[in-house]
Amino acid sequence: MANRGVHAAELAKLLNAIAQPIYVLDAAGRLVFLNKACRELLGSAAENLLGVRCSYCTVAGQSAEAVAAAMCPPPAAMAGLQTTGTVSFLAPDGELRRRSARFVALGDGAEGCCALMVMAGNEDLSDDAQVPPTGHCLLEEPGSEQLHRLIQEFRRQQSKRYQIDHLVGQSVAARRARRQVELAAGNRCSVLIVGPPGSGRRHTATAIHYAADADLLGTLVPLDCAVLPPDLVQSTVKVIASGGGLGETAAHSTLLLCEVDQLAEAAQSELGAMLSAKPFPARVISTATEPLMEMARRGRFRLELAAALSTLVIELPPLVERLEDLPLLAQSFLEQLNARGTKQLGGFTQETLDQLATHRWPGNLDELAQVVEEAYHRAVGPNITVADLPPRIHHAAASLKVRKSEESIVLDKFLAQVERELIRRATAAAKGNKAKAARLLGMSRARLYRRMIQLGLIDK
């Protein structure tokens, strides 16, 4: 035992003398050693890192968990499946510094290595070379590590104030929604969030509320208009309108009306009067499946209430309209699971992402999150494969193949239909004169006559 301690001290001394950052994780992914160069790179944050588990995810802020998560190597490295890659260090100034790294397995465990030594390079990698800025196009087939770095960059840029992971992506719809969220968070106007069920409407509403500085953050009062009795919704709004309930925090509080488009008509009338009579003490955010002003034009919603709630409208598209964001969204959901559990997965095989992209996603983001969670628990390797996907995804893919087969085009039949139509149009233009119709079609009268018989346009 004494010799083991002496050997460990000698090894630590040798590693501390090396100029490049080196750290060691045990089999559970906990940091058990950081050499001098690594501690200097991390600054004071290094003091609290020993014993903290590295999860393959991104944690907001600069806590010990956030610093450790940034340093987490790809999960495949713990299984000894790769020897090189990249790692990130969360510097004292809050910036992510990416460096190339070599992973050295220490010992052989039954389910992977007993410990992992990470030897990072001394030079920071260029952000431009590693991660496209938010708003630029993804590569056609991004790998799991690139998706991981994209999410790190997205959260560093966007999530310091807004927890809007469901809006990660480069699609036009995602970029537009992020700009609208930023605009809504910067003022106290009423906001209407429109989108299909499962698109993240309530998540967006809470992100806007909590974007305020901590010392200016008031109370969030959510009311589910589809579930609560209309009189309870009315009485709650009335108390807030009269200045009661929220006290001094009213000016910084938010009334969240979920599924407001399902509010009874009688309650709509009284609510509209309360919101329009005088300045409402709290900011009002509402969610609905379609724009309220359009519903009002069709006579399905009270116009005065629709106008009061629709100062700023944020539209969240269904997932099928932003499939280019699906790889990042799936990776984001996977890393949230990594953060909550001891199991760590790196990402998805390209074949898996391709199959997910063929699904219609009637449940939108909520359904994708559920599918990722089921696949996460089923997976036995470092990445989620097609075999790990729930049966319903396989069934949907199989039915899609059947439909495509049924809808296949028979070339000869299709060309015959086109030819019939052309002959009909030429004959109509020639007013029944077959010789003139043949000239319009660039063929002889005899050939036209034969084709009309063959196509069933005239009898023999």
Model description:
- The chain has 460 residues and is α/β, with parallel strands linked by helices.
- Among the domains are: 12-130, Beta-Lactamase, CATH 3.30.450; 172-316, Rossmann fold, CATH 3.40.50.300; 411-454, Orthogonal Bundle (Arc Repressor Mutant, subunit A), CATH 1.10.10.
- Helix content is 45%, strand content 13%.
- The protein has 19 helices and 12 strands.
- The protein has helices at 2-16, 36-42, 64-71, 75-78, 127-130, 144-158, 172-185, 201-209, 230-241, 265-277, 292-297, 303-309, 326-340, 350-357, 364-378, 391-406, 411-429, 434-441, 445-454, and strands at residues 22-26, 31-34, 84-90, 96-106, 115-120, 191-194, 220-224, 254-258, 283-288, 312-315, 347-348, 383-384.
- The strands form 3 sheets. Strands 2-1-5-4-3 form a 5-stranded antiparallel sheet, sandwiched between helices. The protein has a 5-stranded parallel sheet with strand order 7-8-9-6-10.
- α6 crosses α13, α7 packs parallel to α8 (201-209) and α17 crosses α18 (434-441).
Q: What is the CATH topology classification name of the domain at 172-316? A: Rossmann fold
Straight-line N-to-C gap: 105 Å
Largest sheet: 5 strands, antiparallel
> What share of the residues lie within helices?
40-55%
Report the CATH architecture of the domain at 172-316: 3-Layer(aba) Sandwich
- Name of the CATH superfamily of the domain at 172-316: P-loop containing nucleotide triphosphate hydrolases
